[in-house]
Design a protein that fits this description.
Blueprint: H1 9-13, E1 30-36, E2 42-48, H2 50-54, E3 58-62, E4 87-88, E5 94-100, H3 103-112, E6 114-119, H4 126-131, E7 140-144, H5 147-150, E8 156-164, E9 176-181, E10 187-191, H6 196-207, E11 214-218, H7 233-246, E12 250-253, H8 256-262, E13 269-277, E14 283-295, H9 301-310, E15 321-329, H10 343-361, H11 365-371, H12 391-401, H13 404-417, E16 421-434, E17 443-450, E18 456-460, H14 469-481, E19 488-490, E20 493-494, H15 509-536, E21 543-546, E22 549-552, E23 555-560, H16 561-570, E24 576-582, E25 587-589, E26 594-596, E27 600-613, E28 619-628, H17 636-655, E29 686-691, H18 716-729, E30 738-739, H19 743-751
Parallel strand pairs: 1-12, 8-30, 10-11, 14-15, 18-19, 28-29
Antiparallel strand pairs: 1-5, 2-4, 2-6, 3-5, 7-15, 8-13, 9-10, 9-12, 11-20, 13-14, 16-27, 17-18, 17-24, 21-22, 22-23, 25-26, 27-28
The protein binds ligand MTE, hypoxanthine (HPA) and dioxothiomolybdenum(VI) ion (MOS).
């Protein structure tokens, strides 16, 4: 396989790539550090800063009283103060911001602050919040057909409960920002954010100044995974407030412990399902009540709840569906975007319901899955008609290509021959909608400069976070303009060059920004075509640009790209272009919960095999074999990298990553000794990804479908493969759907009576 390498790979491996923490600070720069709540819920009766303030090297301690604009950072719902005022709602909630000459001094000062809190009852689970009617907003429901009255006609009806836990983003680069005062009250924020405009807008609001006085620059992120879509904002805004008062640069990088304690994670969900099947295994009715543990403030929870409903039927057509989601307000840090954005939580429930049904009927789970896969022109519960559906195609191609029958036979033989080791297998189909579910967010812009020496600079709203979006943007510019890689440079993401952007999220960054780059480059090319046609006394329709030369009727001329640019300058032709792209055809009407919210869907099927050590309860993922619908991948190396990374993250969420808060709302899994993430030893021994041959989709950039989030959900297959192995060992095991399936839970399942 030969595709372009990530353009950052050279500087990454040499440690030369720049992140916020690598910036050379100005000589007068100060360091910030948060003082946060040591209780999950209560009234603040007093805080004593005097000892901290008296410490040599402490410059100032900021609180909500220093906010000149609004002390409010809530994006969707204004329910989150930047700094707590009279009450605290989660353990780790920011209360004050210490500015000192060094980080060591700031830490010392933090230890000198004393606080008294009159404690109030703490809610840590969604179920308890629902009982106490503690919600973020009103519940949402999607409805197709009439599930309620269909159950009566079903051959089989099963009900059950599932739980999926949260997940820590564990980006390598923690949250942080470096803020520098410029002239006339302007502040430049170099932030590690997926949403530069969100940072700019919120900073302007909190500081009480216009957005044009805040410039946000993003070099790249050492990972975001959704954790920096909304939650990079508070730290950046805090540094901005400090700069506004002190007129000196301020840097704040969270240390790992602070980041783990103070930031939100993937939402835990408790869910209740009811599934009804006909005699021939068609799922004819499905109902779910999702309880989302939203944490103490809305953050992105309402949008995430919505995506749970969109993906509640995964790759299946179910004619009668009722799904409802409650965003439950608890005293945990506000939970937030995490790769899949509520979709994985929804898909775990339908897969659990199918596993439950299959087990109780006494058949293999895959028989139900296979009988219900989406077909062309099926309707999703939200009204979109499925077109160019590849659900069955990936499923049957996976079965054939990876010789499922033979593998199943080998597993049966292995299990018959081995007493203390058992193998399990599962199939996991995925269907994921591409677009922000909020239609109005689906837009992007690009600004392309051709410099007079022929080199090109591209600015977009896309944030590079390791997903290689910059490499894809370079590829787009290069193919449209017909020039070599070294001629194109990707600029940092900066709000003064590309404004009013949506965050880099929803797997849509390359599509949205890539289309804008394509449009800008196409406009430039039209102008350059005129110039070249003139020089060569040829007709415009015969002119093309390739390999840094002008071609006439597909024959290479001696006219170089540089010579055309020089002539264009001489003729005073504009060599810069700004383009705006907004996804066509998408719409959604929330008043009826129907529409066509997604530009297209991504499909795939994974086959997962595992071996469980039935003495220890430990397990290994033997192999994950995937047939994935990339459309026509524009960079298979990068796209397969995204599959492997997302898969590991999905398996981690389903098997070993266990977030634990105590009943007082304190994070217990607050270090990598207690919070286990997949490493190279727990990764599948084999990962094989084979692209499905398809047409691609016109709304995907260069027909190359979005790839960032969908493959995370292949990881759900690991849960059910392990469950099969446990069943093979212990016929008395009753199926449970409580993720992650940690070795402790496996061991208990193996020996349950
Ligand atoms: N890959 C890397 N290496 N680092 C990341 O932070 N974020 C994921 C995914 N892949 C992420 C990643 C998430 S949550 C999303 S939404 C997409 O990348 C965002 O980028 P895209 O829209 O360009 O796919
Ligand atoms: N996906 C990811 N991030 C988002 C979305 C979405 O649909 N909507 C708002 N932020
Ligand atoms: Mo991704 S969760 O949409 O940042």
């Amino acid at each position: 396989m030969k595709t372009m390498k990530n353009i950052d790979s050279f500087t990454h491996v040499r440690g030369e790539s720049l992140f916020v923490d690598d910036l050379q600070l100005r000589q007068d720069a100060l360091i910030g550090l948060c003082f946060d709540s040591p209780k999950a819920h209560g009234k603040i009766t007093s805080v004593d800063y005097s000892k901290a303030e008296a410490l040599d090297g402490v410059v100032k301690i900021f609180t909500y009283k220093d906010v000149l604009g609004e002390n409010q950072i809530g994006g969707i719902i204004p329910d989150e103060p930047l700094w707590a005022e009279d009450e605290v709602h989660f353990w780790g909630q920011p209360i004050a911001f210490i500015i000192a000459k060094t980080e060591a001094i700031a830490k010392k000062a933090r230890a000198l602050i004393t606080i008294e809190i009159e404690e109030l009852p703490v809610i840590t689970t969604a179920k308890e919040a629902k009982e106490k009617k503690s919600f973020i907003n009103a519940p949402r429901s999607f409805k197709l057909g009439d599930s309620k009255n269909t159950f009566a006609n079903c051959e089989y009806v099963f009900e059950g409960e599932t739980f999926s836990n949260g997940q820590e983003h564990l980006y390598l680069e923690t949250q942080g920002c470096y803020a520098v005062p410029l002239e006339n009250g302007t502040i430049k924020l170099t932030s590690s954010t997926q949403g530069p405009t969100q940072v700019q807008k919120t900073a302007a609001k909190v500081l009480g100044i216009p957005m044009h006085k805040i410039e946000v620059d993003v070099i790249r992120l050492g990972g975001g995974f959704g954790g920096k879509e909304d939650q990079a904002t508070p730290w950046a805004v805090m540094t901005a407030v400090a700069v506004q008062h002190l007129n000196k640069p301020v840097k704040y990088m969270l240390n790992r412990h602070d980041d783990l304690r103070m930031t939100g994670k993937r939402h835990p969900y408790s869910s209740f399902y009811k599934i009804g099947l006909t005699k021939d295994l068609k799922i004819s009715a499905f109902e779910v009540e999702f309880l989302q543990n939203s944490g103490a403030a809305a953050d992105l929870s309402p949008a995430i709840a919505e995506r749970t409903l969109f993906h509640a039927t995964n790759s299946y057509f179910i004619p009668n569906v009722t799904t409802t989601v409650f965003s439950c307000k608890t005293n945990l840090p506000p939970n937030t975007a995490f790769r899949g954005f509520g979709g994985p939580q929804g898909m775990f429930v339908i897969e659990s319901a199918i596993a439950d049904a299959a087990n109780k009927i006494g058949i293999n789970k895959k028989q139900i899955q296979e009988a219900n896969l989406l077909s062309e022109n099926d309707t999703f519960s939200y009204g979109q008609i499925a077109t160019k559906v590849e659900a069955k195609n990936t499923w049957f191609t996976a079965k054939d290509t990876f010789n499922l029958e033979k593998t199943e036979q080998e597993i049966a033989n292995f299990n018959a021959e081995n007493k203390h080791y058992k193998k399990g297998i599962s199939l996991m189909p995925i269907t994921f909608g591409i677009s922000f579910t909020n239609t109005q967010m689906n837009h992007a812009r690009a600004l392309v400069h051709i410099y007079q020496d022929g080199s090109v600079g591209v600015s977009t709203g896309a944030v590079e976070m390791g997903q290689s979006v910059n490499t894809k943007m370079l590829q787009v510019a290069q193919t449209v303009l017909g020039i070599s890689t070294s001629k194109v440079k990707l600029e940092t993401t900066n709000t003064t060059r590309v404004a009013n952007t949506s965050p880099s999220a929803a797997s849509s960054t390359a599509d949205l920004n890539g289309k804008a780059v394509e449009m800008a480059c196409t406009s430039l090319l039209e102008r350059l075509t005129k110039v070249a046609a003139n020089i060569l006394s040829s007709e415009e329709k015969n002119i093309s640009f390739k390999e840094d030369f002008v071609f006439v009727a597909d024959k290479k001329s001696t006219l170089t790209w540089e010579a055309v640019i020089m002539q264009a300058m001489a003729e005073r032709v504009a060599l810069s272009e700004n383009a705006h792209y907004a996804t066509p055809k998408i719409h959604f009407d929330k008043s009826i919960e129907k529409g066509h919210p997604f530009a297209y869907h991504v499909y795939g099927t994974a086959i997962t095999t595992v071996t469980v050590d039935c003495l220890r309860g430990t397990y290994e993922i033997d192999a994950v074999k995937i047939i994935h619908d990339f459309g026509k991948s524009m960079n298979l190396g990068i796209d397969i990298g995204q599959i492997e990374g997302a898969l590991a993250q999905g398996i981690g969420w389903m098997t070993m990553e266990e977030i634990a808060y105590n009943t007082n709302g304190k994070l217990l899994s607050n270090a990598l000794s207690t919070y286990k993430v997949p490493d190279i030893f727990s990764a599948p021994k084999t990962i094989e990804t084979i692209p499905l041959e398809t047409e691609g989709h016109d709304l995907a950039i260069q027909k190359s479908k979005a790839v960032g989030e969908p493959p995370l959900m292949y990881g759900i297959g690991a849960y059910f493969a392990i469950q099969e192995a446990v069943k093979a060992f212990n016929p008395n095991y009753t199926l449970k759907f409580h993720a992650p399936f940690t070795p402790e839970k496996v061991l208990m399942g193996l020996y349950e009576e």
